[in-house]
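Input chain follows. Return structure tokens only.
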Amino acid sequence: MIELYAIKKPEKAEEVKLFQKGFEKLIYHLENEPNPFL
């Protein structure tokens, strides 16, 4: 999916990678935080 997008819009590929990395970090952080809603 990301690879296909990168082929069509190479100038956006880096942005997408950075976004993905940030998103993964956020998810990881949220998964390791105590859940305030419990």
